[in-house]
Amino acid sequence: MASLNLFSFFALLFLCHGALHLQASHHHVYSRLQDGVSAVGSSSSSSKGQPYRTGYHFQPPKNWINDLSGPMIYKGIYHLFYQYNPKGAVWGNIVWAHSTSTDLINWTPQGYGIYPSHPSDINGTWSGSTTFLQDGTPAILYTGINPKNQQVQNLAVPKNRSDPYLKDWVKNLKNPLMAPTPQNRINASSFRDPTTAWMGRDKIWRVIIGSKVDRKGMAVLYTSKDFVNWVRADHPLHSTDGTGMWECPDFFPVLVGGYKNGLDTSKLGPKVKHVLKVKHVLKVSLDDTKHDHYTIGKYDPFVDVYTPDHDGLADQDLGMRYDYGKYYASKTFFDWGKNRRILLGWVNESSTEDDDVAKGWAGVHTIPRKIWLDKSGKQLVQWPIEEVEKLREKGVKKPCQELKPGSVHEVTGVTAEQADVEISFGKLDLSKAEKLDPSWTDPQALCTRKGASVRGALGPFGLLVLGSKCMQEYTAVFFRVFQGHDGKPVVLMCSDQSKSSRNDENDKASYGTFVDVNPALENLSLRTLIDHSIVESFGAHGKSVITARVYPLLAIDGAAHLYAFNNGTQSVKASRLSAWSMKKARIG
Ligand code: DQQ
Q1: Average pLDDT rounded to a whole number, residues 402-429
Q2: 544: which DSSP letter?
Q3: What is the per-residue DSSP string for 74-128?
């Protein structure tokens, strides 16, 4: 690391030639954008006038994308469908675009799998999920929008099951299979996004669908003997007052005991011979806040009721989330090929709609993450799938280094705008930590109040990514360690976008979460996947995740820098730092 031992890391600004120079480089970059000068460096993905297109995150060549739908592995091929507008860079005209892959990283487009064609979906083919029927048929349940603009649930199966690419899908003649009626009193504009169904020991299928009654969010439960005739159960699987519409629910079992293996959604079904120690996870995407919340709890298969251990959904924004940044409408699937559960999620833009239209596209998906129950049983853990490491090329590894108070250390030798970085901080002396004010209960508010430029004692320390040379722009991903009122450490993880771009029209909100880790007893780790306009950060080996979208004007086209920093009054030790340039994935 090229170390700059500065009194304050903001002093770096003055090492460059001040405001005039910054103005000049701003205009310079803009003219390069208009001229369409392409990226410096062979592996960087930025192409003509498109500095924000990603190099290894999933996105189609153009137009709007949102939720991923129906992910599965079939005959060794991974399938991803996603909500896509064939006509432009804003939401609308939604079809299920389809891509396949053998590694969940490189993708081949397969056209449109499901698109409006029948009365039961003529006004839209919205989100849904795949279930494997007992004979191995992948069956898709999805929401269709009918001519009255009501939300109904439909079934589609492959036209040719021997085609591993599953290009053509046939809709069931009885569609819609679930619909709002005057009798069932389902709200026709709040009834969508069927999950993967699961089969009980009684050989009956169950599925849940997102809904609400007034402000009570709920997972409406339907059952079926044959996957075609569905009956609404007399109670929802779960509901919570005051949460509003639940979109894209997901419900799946996880192993207790810290095992990383995944489980099939029907694991409690007829095929299970022995009793496994499992818990269940219910995730819902809260339409009001656009956040994905989950609870861990007990599912009673005899009465079909899910009871969360702690009803975090009732807390709304203080409840547990997969990702504390920009992240929504996620879904998991069981990958029997590698015996793991994979989580995929949609990341919307933080730019204006005008900017989206101008660049011709909007939305990316995260790197697929493996997901499992932490050994504490209290939370989930996520980690980028191992396949992404195949994209690592040129790398640097730094030995243990002290990060002195107020220091910034440049990490050179990698393509900083398309990189994978892992840093780990040595054990900390907590007697030096600031006291946590008892009113600081909201981590996002605390990260907003105490951004990277606010000096603390133990922290802020972490990474400055997509930074410009003189640090007029950077996205800071960092930790602060406090002493809680009970004397126990409280670790705050933040992603501070306030300086990410000189364009002030973007949403540059800070994100944050508390991390359940004791940095006096173990190293504090941070891994960040940087890809032009997306920054995905994993704290404490995946216990907390924050994803941000950023649009630098200077740190683009080969001009981005990567730094480690410490803006606390106490030194911290970077016990390990490894960084790799990332190759471009093949995403057609
Ligand atoms: N997006 C879909 C809906 C879902 C929402 C429509 C969540 O099915 O509720 O594109 O982003």
Answers
A1: 97
A2: E
A3: ETTEEEEEEEEETT-SSS-S-EEEEEEESSSSSBEEEEEEE-S-SGGGTT-EEEE
Q: Which residues are catalytic?
A: 67
Nearest CA among 95, 87, 91, 92 for reference residue 113 = 95
Nearest protein Cα to ligand 1, atom 5: 247
- Using the mean position of ligand 1's atoms as its centre, give its distance from the Cα of residue 247 in Å: 7
Residue 220, token pair as written in the block: 């409406």
Residue type, position 238, single letter: H
Ligand 1 atom at minimal distance to the Cα of residue 285:
7
Model-level pTM?
A: 0.92
Q: Is residue 430 classed as helix, strand or coil in its secondary structure?
A: helix
Is the domain spanning 2-25+391-582 CATH 2.60.120.560? The answer is yes
Tens-place pLDDT, residues 161-178: 999 999 999 999 999 999
Spatial CA neighbour of 229 closest among 264, 205, 209: 205
CB 467 within 8 Å of CB 562: yes
CA atoms within 13 A on the CB side of 136: 8
Say what the pLDDT of residue 48 is.
Answer: 62
Give the distance (Å) from ligand 1 centre to CA of residue 127.
6
- How far apart are alpha carbons 14 and 390 in whole angstroms? 39
Among the listed residues 346, 578, 565, the one whose alpha carbon sits nearest the alpha carbon of residue 477: 565
User: Is 177 in contact with 154 (CB distance < 8 Å)?
Assistant: yes
Residues 6+ apart with CB under 8 A from 210: 190, 191, 192, 193, 217, 218, 219, 220, 245, 246, 247, 248, 249, 284, 285
What distance lies between CA 238 and its chain's CA centroid?
A: 24
Q: Which atom of ligand 1 is nearest to the CA of 328?
A: 11
Ligand 1 lining (C-beta closer than 6 Å): 66-67, 83, 94, 126-127, 143, 192-193, 247-248, 328-329
Q: Which of 123, 358, 137 is nearest to 226 (CA)?
A: 137
Which phi and psi (to 5°) does residue 21 adopt? -60, -40
Domain locations in the chain as residue ranges: 2-25+391-582, 63-348
To test ligand 1's pocket by mutation, which of 84, 146, 151, 192 has the most ligand atoms within 8 angstroms of CB? 192
In tens, the pLDDT along 440-480 reads 999 999 999 999 999 999 999 999 999 999 999 999 999 99
Tell me: cis bond preceding 460? Omega within 30 of 0 counts.
yes
Q: How far apart are CA 192 and CA 410, in angstroms?
A: 48
Span from the CA of 128 to the centroid of ligand 1 (angstroms): 9
pLDDT, averaged across the chain: 91
The answer to whether the CB of 351 falls within 8 A of the CB of 549 is yes
- In which region does residue 244 sit, left (phi positive, over 0), alpha (psi from -120 to 50) or beta (all else)? left
Distance from the CA of 445 to the center of ligand 1, in angstroms? 28
Report the CATH fold assignment for 63-348.
Answer: Tachylectin-2; Chain A (2.115.10)
